[in-house]
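--- STAGE predict ---
source: upstream dedup step, 1 unique chain passed
mode: sequence only
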Amino acid sequence: MTIDPDQLRTAMRAWTAGVTIVTASFEGVRHGMTVNSFTSVSLDPAWITISLQQSSRTRDLIHRSEAFGITILTQNQQDLADRFAGRTPEMEDRFAGLETISYQTGAPLLKVGLAQMDCRLVQTIDVGMNTLFIAEVVEAHTNDSGQPLIYHDRKYWKLSAI
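--- STAGE serialize ---
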């Protein structure tokens, strides 16, 4: 017997996570989405994971291009989190008016944020309604200032030291 998805969803609201934008492109088409299912798996090799719904456009572009970018957002970038979460329905191109940069894989990355990671796909695992992507970080860049945007219980939060 499996648990009701709404029960799990409610329990997962107790988990606090940073907020990232995952971006990809293939044959001139680019897309991105807000993701908090992101984690480091290994420092050597430099591997991370993300999990995306199988029906998402970004998932399809990552699958086809075998690469993606991750931008970790600052506490002042809630507008970008909402934009890439699709909460701005009148905006067809989520990248409109934003500066992007590409590194080794060619994946588009937002130029703003706490950190950017250029990732090459290592393994794909379909799990239920999602796809787990395991990727090698081939390049990483950080900015020295700012605090992370935090997501907890369906709200954005600011980080504070104890």
